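A favour, since you know our structure tokens better than I do. It will help me judge whether the discrete encoding reads sensibly. The space below this message is yours for that.
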Amino acid sequence: MAGFGYLALLFPFGGALTGHTAFGVVANAATLADKLELSALGLLVLILLALLARRRPLSAVRP
């Protein structure tokens, strides 16, 4: 875990959030509004995870 920095925590927690949101859409959403809301939330989580994964620490940017 030492060599990966924050990515070592980002991927497991991000996967858990995405997986639980997908399960909520498939198994627990009763109405179309519930499915749309959970799908939008899942998409937002994926976008934020992608942005965090692309983020570089300041030490990597400075020469």
